[in-house]
Amino acid sequence: MTALENAWSALGGEPSLLDRVTTVVREGALDARLPVRPLARACAGACALAAAELGARRAGLAGVPRVRIDDGALAAAFSSERQLLVDGRAPVSFAPLSRFWRTADGWVRTHANYPHHRERLLGALGLPQDATADDVAALLAGRRAPEVEETVYGAGGLAVALRTPAEWAAHPQSAAVAAHPLVERAPLGHAPAALPPLSGSGSGTGPLLPAAGLRVLDLTRVLAGPVATRTLGLLGADVLRVDPPRSPELPDQHADTGFGKRTTALDLSLAGDRAVFEELLSAADVVVTGYRPGALDRFGLSPEALAERRPGLVVAQVSAWGAYGPWGGRRGFDSLVQVASGIAVLEGSPSAPGALPVQALDHGTGYLLAAAVLRALTERAERGHGAVLRLALARTAAWLTGGAGDAGGRHAEEVPHTGPGVSYEEAGAPHDAPDAWLAGTDSALGRLRYARSPVSFDGGPTDWTRPPTPWGSDTPRWL
After folding, report:
1. How distant, in Å, are the alpha carbons of 108, 133, 239, 393 from that of 336?
2. Helix (H, G, I), strand (E, B), or coil: what is residue 225?
3. What DSSP designation does 411 have?
4. How many whole angstroms separate alpha carbon 260 and alpha carbon 282?
5. Cα separations in angstroms, 165 against 254, 275, 339, 402, 459
6. With contact defined as beta carbons under 8 Å apart, do 432 and 438 qualify?
7. Is 259 exposed, middle or buried (0-12, 13-18, 19+ CB in 10 A)?
8. Under 8 Å CB-to-CB from 9, ≥6 apart: which residues?
9. 10 Å Cβ neighbour count for 269?
10. How many C-beta neighbours within 10 Å does residue 421 have?
11. Which residue from 117, 118, 97 is spatially nearest to 108, judged by alpha carbons?
12. Per-residue pLDDT tens for 87-100?
């Protein structure tokens, strides 16, 4: 089973539709020891196919439009945070204290991009808030990695000890992750009405927008969740991101993932803001959350509580470690999951750990999350129920380290061929000539250079119609 077949099956898709997918091969794109390129093709390809399927149903088309996945577009999109320029300035991907550190017994990686995570890290280590990277390095050199991991976690910070694949396989969280499917899908409540048909979209007056007229509440942060909602915005959904007012997103991160959506700030602990949120929920079709499992339940935002108030809702959740196992309540990021799961060892050298060429766990899971939402909307139209969907970066990592479902081995999808479910084309242009997959636009944030979406199907959108707006600046209402 190829990676695309595996992903499409996990989404509950009709196998015969895989014949609609063509991949443009560009040698060297997303090159890594692990099968990053097949994973990227599968996640974006499944998303595009799910979009084409939903669009065909809503527009009354005789067949599902053809999907085209280009390795060059994947390489640009899966590194979108690095392709971004704001008025010619390149973003800062990682803060000085977000890195690998040598310890007395190996390595540990910390994440301190957000100010509160930096504060908690230094506090857990007993260092002053003006401590430098040299101060941290000197301290950690004398500490054991597992002890640092638990101490920092106990203080609300983020640190993960480097593990080999075998060490991770023996960890109880790994066992918990392996016991769950790549995409968890379950019916949720009853949908009182079918999706409205598309009017005008794809009929020659504009692109086919499968999610047009649908309303998405975006309660996500960082990368995987925002990639999913950015994609739903590309496909025509009215996406409104809602953040707590005292926890702004990092500016460059917001600029990268803010395309196709609006952004507002609400404090759900305040009665007035909560009433505004409930009004938004009453007309929403989809809610996407990206906080650690259970963190939003106190606000009545568990899937079951949401469905009681909005029957037929599709609730999609993404987390780092999954909503189960001993690490189910922990915070996490792509870079830390790579360290825990053995990826950093597999991509490293005998002298130091390494990393994937892109944050493939975040981006791949993001496109899978969007695909799961689109398929759930198709099933809602067919079967009359909402859905709860759960994905985890650690589960995507297990898929990647297990070969991404590619039964033919590491290079089986690297050779152009035609076979069941997918066809391939040779391409002359190298992957490292990215201009074809980059675009520019003016925005309230400045002049932006950005990566186009790799989600592409016949008659579909080729770019976002809405650039990002300043964080929290939009009115909390539906268009």
Report:
1. 9, 18, 29, 10
2. helix
3. T
4. 22
5. 33, 47, 10, 10, 43
6. no
7. buried
8. 1, 15
9. 10
10. 16
11. 97
12. 999 998 899 999 99
The amino acid at 57: R
3-state SS, residue 311? coil
Q: What is the pTM of this model?
A: 0.95
Which three-class secondary structure string do you get for 112-178?
CCCHHHHHHHHHHHCCCCCCCHHHHHHHHCCCCHHHHHHHHHHCCCCEEECCCHHHHHCCHHHHHHH
Structure tokens at 106: 């190996």
Q: Over the Cα atoms of the chain, what is R_g?
A: 22
| pLDDT tens digits, 317-376 | 999 999 999 999 899 999 999 999 999 999 999 999 999 999 999 999 999 999 999 999
Decide: 189 and 311 in contact? Cβ < 8 Å. yes
**Tokens (6 digits) for 343:** 């990826």
Question: Can you read off the two tokens belonging to residue 476?
Answer: 């909390």
Q: Rounded to an integer, what distance in angstroms lies between the CA atom of residue 82 and that of residue 80?
A: 5
Question: If DSSP codes are grouped into helix, strand and coil, which group holds residue 241?
Answer: strand
Length of the chain equals 479
> Coil, helix or strand for 364?
helix
Q: What is the dihedral of CA 263, 268, 272, 278, to 10 degrees?
A: 80
Are 358 and 323 in contact by the 8 Å Cβ rule? The answer is no
